[in-house]
Amino acid sequence: MTGSMALMSFRTLCLVADATEAYSYEAISTRVFSPSQVWVLRILTVLPCFGSMLMNMLVAVDLLLPFQALFSRTILCLVVTSVLYIVAVLAGHAYGLPWPHDSAVERPLNSFSWGGVAYAIPIQIFSYGCHLNLVRTYGELEHKQSMQWVIFCIVSTGLALFAVASTSGYVIFQGMVTWIAIRTSDLGTAMTWVGTFDGVMFHFVVPGLFLVSTPSSQFATRLPRCATEMGWGVVCIGLSVAVASLSRLV
């Protein structure tokens, strides 16, 4: 579900970038948003800086264009290598271990509940948190048609890595919730708030609002048919997920 939402938001960003010929959140927002909306978006953009050094770097690349040459592709390669290393270590430890018995866990892995979906999506959203770089990469591509394959690779790779890591962790800990480095009882609550307000709003609702606002500007003729309906659809889905996630905390 999170991967499908990411696909919709990526496609939305590409449509807006084509119409406005702007290739960053900051540039797009200044063209289709009012000044007050631009500042709200800037606040949402700055919030991740307090939670992740990686996101801090991405925000700097998006907002501080004169300094973008300082951020080399080598750093991004190190980030990807670190992710692959973590997934490989988890898969290696899980290899050969028995599958947890349902009687030993509180909730089997194959069980389903909408409450569990509302809990998981705000956390999983950050597995697809590449929207800032996506727009800039789209602007650098010489052949824009190849972007659909880039998006497919992003979502499918993220889905595969997340599935391997989560399943391996489930097997390693035999279905038990184990706190290792962070020993706080309300970590899930904090992640839900951060994932809902920053993850859902920034990664899904804002791209939808971009597409909704573009037809009211001078770029309307560059959009395909039903662009407004598609934008509202992305916004409504994002807000529905946000409300469902927050309802668990209220």
From TrEMBL:
Keywords from the UniProt entry: Membrane, Transmembrane, Transmembrane helix
Molecular-function GO term, any one: L-amino acid transmembrane transporter activity
Top-level taxon: Eukaryota
Coiled-coil ranges (or none): none
Name of one Pfam family that matches: Aa_trans
InterPro entries (UniProt xref): AA_transpt_TM (IPR013057)
Annotated ranges, domain Amino acid transporter transmembrane: 79-174
Chain segments annotated as transmembrane: 38-63, 75-96, 116-135, 147-173, 193-212, 232-249
Cellular component terms (Gene Ontology): membrane
Membrane topology: Multi-pass membrane protein
Compartments reported by the entry: Membrane
Protein name per the record: Amino acid transporter transmembrane domain-containing protein
